[in-house]
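User: I'm new to structure prediction. If I give you an amino acid sequence, what do you actually give back? Let's try with this one:
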Amino acid sequence: MLPAAIAAADAGARAVMVPTANAAEASLVSSLEVLPVAHLAQAIRFLRGEGDVEAVNGHAHVAENGSGLDLSDVRGNVVAKRALVIAAAGGHNLLMVGSPGGGKTMLARRLPDILPPMSEQESFEVTRVASIAGLLPDGGSLVTHRPFRAPHHSASTTGLIGGGSGVPHPGEVTLAHRGVLFLDEFAEFRRETLQALRQPLEDGVIRIVRARWAVTYPARFQLIAAANPCPCGYDGDEVKGCSCLPGPKDGYKSRLRGPVIDRIDLQCTVARIKRKELFELPAGETSVTLAAQVADSRERQRLRYGPGGPRSNADVPPRDIDKTCRLQAAARTAVEVAIERQSLSARGAHRVIRVARTIADLAGVDEVTRDHVEEALDYRVSDSAT
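Assistant: Good question. You get back a string of structure tokens that encode the predicted 3D arrangement of the chain. For your 386 residues, that looks like this:
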């Protein structure tokens, strides 16, 4: 019912008649007067002026559903935590690679709590998706915390992008709208399933066309992927050696390349935690502190790009990079050297500059320096597929 209520509000309506069971949900739209009716006969009598309907004024029931997880709980892996903060600050997609038990999932699950709070419009978008999917709590509540979706690697393409043989339903990419889509065991997903992510990653929507119907769902999410370095999981591990044969190992690593990986700006290694790190003090910055840094960075981006501009640094189109991501002379030289020595492609160079722009925003400076570029290069995704 919420999607219809929002559409009515957008059309300028001041009142909307709904079934009694949907009144609480429709009342989430504060600009509407909601008229609940128990059956069609009651609606007809009211429209004829033969009976009254007690109106329900719009008001928001807020669903507080934060994870309560804190980044200070994750010991060690300073580089991976830094990559997560950069991803949050610039809206960048992130790939984490490391042995089992290194903390990849722990890190990913803490991302929503350092992302900026949702605006009222974003809350309505997320609540509308939850309503369509039948995931709103009884009575209806306005969702204010960014969603976190973590489908299993055995998920079907339909389960990930939506659709179905009968009534179409939203998939995980839509349920993650304005939040985080976490794909653990990324290399174990079916190739065709991952290929289906290309459109939503590019356009922020998913269009599904079947013989009898076509539907468009919102799908503007932040992708966090995690993978082992090889089939056995221990390639490069300091404690346990890799037992993989060359053929399967090469085949596995090939899955960590391709068009979807090409749309991921950041890549980092999540190392096995060391014994001394497990009990280290201090534990590190809390999610509250890091969220404030992320919010300041996003505010700088909002002021830079203005209304109608990119939502974040990750969305800056190539044609605008020179104008919006100003590089100092030494920083430009560092990018040029990377192009020559590391075979960095044009697309890869743009990714590095976007990430460097975010690092500069976290530092609170207007121009991108050589240090910012060099840190961004440390998180460079392989360009073998570009």
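You can read the tokens as a compact description of the fold. Here is one thing that stands out. DSSP finds 17 helices and 14 strands in the chain.
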